[in-house]
Each structure stands twice: as structure tokens, then as C-alpha cells.
Amino acid sequence: MIQIKGKRAIVLASGGLDSTTTLAIAVDRGFETYAISFDYGQRHKLELHAAKRVAEALGAKQHLVVRVDLTRIGGSALTGQIPVPKGREADQMKREIPVTYVPARNTVFLSLALAWAEVKRAEDIFIGVNALDYSGYPDCRPEYIEAYEKMANLALKETVLGRMKIKIHTPLIEMTKAEIIKTGVNLGVDFSLTWSCYDPTPDGKPCGLCDSCILRKKGFAEAGLKDPLSL
Fold first, then answer.
1. Which residues pair with 168 in a beta bridge?
2. How far apart are CA 58 and CA 13, in angstroms?
3. Residue ranges per domain, the chain?
4. Could you give the strand order of the β-sheet that contains 32-39, starting from the edge strand earlier in sequence?
5. 14 within 8 A of 191, measured Cβ to Cβ
6. pLDDT by residue (tens digit) across 10-40?
7. CATH 3.40.50.620 fits 8-223, yes or no
8. How far is residue 45 from each of residues 8, 39, 122, 207, measured CA to CA in Å?
9. Are 201 and 207 in contact (CB under 8 A)?
10. pLDDT category of residue 96 using cuts at 50, 70 and 90
11. Residue partners of 210: CB distance under 8 A and separation at least 6
12. Of the four listed, 3, 14, 25, 92, which is most buried by Cβ atoms within 10 Å?
């Protein structure tokens, strides 16, 4: 459904395929977009540079980077010294929650996005979670998003006073990675600006073997397209 031109939306932007396509969808629907990214101590901090490039390219009104040090909590290969799994089959990724899961990450990120949404009076929040080609993360499921949206509308002064109603949009939730890539291409996304790898090489290149690299490679192959990053 096409939205009213100029209506504000907060878009979670990691600089990857999914969040970039999600931002493009929000723009296409007529929203004035406000991109939010998180410097949380992730080993793949290169994604923040990608998020900045993407936000600029897609015309976000503002790009906010919030620092929240999740290394203090740990429990993930992305925020600690735990090795990042390499060379896993896609089916294996769906059978178990991997060590790249960051405890409560989407809950933390959505909460900060929600706070900014109230300040910006943006009733719409977009997040690029996906329940098909994903790495088994529990906070990417439809039931999680549904529960979070219900909580969000109980949490804010503006919603309690009836002046706002929060809607969390998950336009990619039932898409395959190939469908996400095709959607992005159709919306004019330049995927050379994006970053997916969890464990970059010392010279700043994708490792090609982590779950995120494998899913990216699989997505482009199934879409019949060449990955501009040549994974």
C-alpha cells in the first residue's frame, strides 16, 4: 500500500542486503526516512561505513549512529572472541541458533529506534528481518515482531495519550534472499554499497565462508545476478 508522501519512518540500517532493500521499500512507499544504525562493538564494523553510504544514496533525511557496547555483555561471536562459524550448509543454519546470535540484539535496537520514533513523531518503523533465508535468529520471526509492536504501543507517552500508533513494517519477512535482491534491484539499489560479511579479512574483504557470506552468495546465484562484491 502506498503511503502518504512525507510521512516519517524510522528504518533500521545495518548496511546489508536486507536493511538496504527495506530502506529502498520505505522510500518507494513515499516515506521521509530516518536511518538508524548501531555501533555495538561488532567485529564487522565495516557495515557502519556501508550503512552511511546506503543512507546517503537512498536519500535518508538523517542517519543516526547510536553507540551501545554489547561487548560488555558478550555471548556472541560478533561481539567477543568466539570464532565465527565457517562453511556451514544453508539447511544447517536453520536447524540451530548459531554463535553469531547476539543476545536480545533486535530488542535493544528496536527499543532505541522506538525512542527516536517518538521524538521524531514517526509512527512507522521498518526492519529488514526475514523468516526464510536467515540464520536461525529468534528475533527475526513474525511472532516476535507482532509481540514487540503490541508492547511498543503500551510503552510510549505519545501512544498512551492516543497521539501516535506505532506500526512495525517487515516487508521482507516472507521473502527468500533471491527475492530480496531482485526487489532491491527493481528499486534501483546499488548493492556494491552494501556489506554482509561477519568476519572480514585483515585487508577488509569479505571472508566468503561465514553464514552471511554464504546466504548472500546463494541469494545472488538464485536471482541469476552477479554480486558486485564478487563473493
1. 125
2. 11
3. 8-223
4. 62-67, 32-39, 8-12, 124-126, 167-169
5. no
6. 999 999 999 999 999 999 999 999 999 999 9
7. yes
8. 27, 7, 27, 14
9. yes
10. confident
11. 84, 85, 86, 100, 197, 198, 199
12. 14
